[in-house]
């Protein structure tokens, strides 16, 4: 597994997303086994949120990680914007920790911008970091204007990462946000890195260039999409899957080295934007 430096912390370039996991009894055991398979094969960064199934995603992760050394995992969760005030945030964090069966998070994210003044949100996250209940804090669904505001408030520079939708078919942040984050050494967590594979992502893989490059690397189109997302060495991709087979394919994608020719062809097939685009959100 390719390892990236995440603000001084080494984590795998491809981890696990867990949206829509844990709520269906019919698939629970398979999903739990898939999470455990991923951990055993190097996908030790796991992303969740209190919103996902109203805690179901955190619960299945907590069930799945029992018996694994906690220090080997990088657990990420997120809180609702309406839990951004101090007491609500700590209560939300405590509930997440309880569901996950751990006494700390590696990274706690403000799920999307809300009504609480950003300087207060940062102060509250910083206070939780000082307690040791979270190792780091960050943000999610922040665009360039949000990030500029973030860095203007006290302790805003302590942000570890920003999590946004990013894939080869959704490149809006390539116009301004992603170059800015690279300039300021703020890593990206890319959610939906193969888009929604069963809907929009399924249309993307019909592209002839993507198919040609996949064939060249003896890989699937989805693996090329993942390899493209993590190409800069500063991005954590968190694809979601309920299948151990697909989990292994995701993990193997981290070892694909796209050539300059590959990247040029993909840029031609999926051009980066030439003007500002609204932030994509699923």
UniProtKB/TrEMBL annotation:
Pfam families: Aldo_ket_red. InterPro entries: AKR, NAD(P)_OxRdtase_dom_sf, NADP_OxRdtase_dom. It comes from the Bacteria. Residues 13-268 form the NADP-dependent oxidoreductase domain. PANTHER family: ALDEHYDE REDUCTASE (PTHR43638:SF3), OXIDOREDUCTASE, ALDO/KETO REDUCTASE FAMILY PROTEIN (PTHR43638). This is Aldo/keto reductase. It comes from Nicoliella lavandulae. The lineage of its organism: Bacteria, Bacillati, Bacillota, Bacilli, Lactobacillales.
């Amino acid at each position: 597994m390719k390892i990236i430096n995440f603000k001084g912390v080494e984590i795998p370039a491809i981890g696990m997303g867990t949206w829509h996991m844990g709520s269906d009894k019919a698939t629970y055991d398979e999903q739990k086994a898939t999470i455990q398979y991923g951990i055993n094969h190097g996908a030790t960064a796991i992303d969740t949120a209190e919103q996902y199934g109203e805690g179901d995603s955190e619960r299945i992760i907590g069930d799945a990680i029992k018996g694994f050394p906690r220090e080997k995992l990088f657990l990420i969760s997120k809180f609702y914007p309406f839990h951004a005030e101090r007491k609500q945030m700590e209560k939300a964090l405590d509930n997440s920790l309880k569901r996950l069966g751990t006494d700390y998070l590696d990274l706690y994210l403000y799920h999307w911008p809300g009504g609480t003044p950003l300087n207060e949100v940062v102060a509250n996250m910083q206070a939780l970091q000082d307690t040791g209940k979270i190792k780091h804090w960050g943000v999610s669904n922040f665009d360039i204007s949000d990030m500029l505001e973030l860095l203007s408030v006290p302790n805003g520079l302590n942000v570890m990462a920003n999590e946004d939708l990013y894939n080869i078919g959704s490149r809006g942040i390539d116009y301004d946000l992603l170059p800015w984050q690279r300039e300021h050494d703020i890593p990206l967590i890319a959610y939906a890195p193969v888009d929604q594979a069963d809907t929009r992502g399924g249309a993307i893989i019909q592209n002839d260039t993507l198919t040609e490059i996949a064939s060249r690397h003896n890989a699937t189109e989805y693996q090329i999409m993942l390899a493209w997302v993590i190409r800069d060495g500063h991005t954590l991709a968190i694809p979601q899957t309920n299948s151990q087979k697909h989990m292994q394919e995701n993990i193997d994608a981290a070892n694909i080295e796209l050539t300059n020719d590959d990247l040029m062809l993909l840029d031609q097939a999926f051009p980066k934007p030439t003007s500002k685009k609204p932030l994509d959100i699923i």
